[in-house]
Write a structure and sequence with these properties.
Layout (H helix, E strand, L loop, with lengths): L1 H31 L15 H27 L2 E7 L6 E12 L2 E4 L4 E3 L5 E6 L6
Antiparallel strand pairs: 1-2, 1-5, 2-3, 3-4
């Protein structure tokens, strides 16, 4: 995840530097060539800058929202009950969704549990007020 953030920041910095140098070269060429085509003032498109900042803010806010919702989903608690068909005994564990991988899961206390193919697994989502 940190790699994605660093890559995004590197791209933003590169684009910023590119625009700065491009703008500097344009000003240098306009000053050296006193032609009729040189602009006398700034561009009249005053909506571009606020629109760009608004879109950048919207993209950042959307990214933060998606990350939060993903984090919230990964930290949902489930009650996992394992039943041994030979003895009939059952054990119950509380597990986060991010820690469940097929027939392997890690409990909140840190125990790593691998379930055999013979044992039955029941997974139930816990409500927010059950834990």
């Amino acid at each position: 995840m940190i790699f994605k953030v660093l890559l995004t920041l590197a791209i933003l910095i590169a684009v910023y530097i590119w625009f700065r140098t491009k703008n500097g070269q344009r000003l240098y060429s306009a000053n050296s060539n006193n032609s009729r085509l040189a602009s006398d003032g700034k561009a009249s498109n005053k909506w571009i800058k606020p629109f760009s900042y608004s879109m950048a803010g919207l993209v950042i806010a959307a990214g933060m929202l998606i990350y939060y919702l993903s984090w919230q989903e990964d930290h949902t608690q489930y009650q996992v009950t394992i039943t041994n068909p030979q003895t009939g005994t059952s054990e119950t564990f509380i597990v986060l969704k991010k820690d469940m991988r097929g027939r392997l899961f890690i409990t909140q206390s840190g125990r790593e549990i691998r379930v055999s193919d013979l044992e039955r697994i029941e997974v139930k989502k816990l409500a927010a007020d059950d834990h």
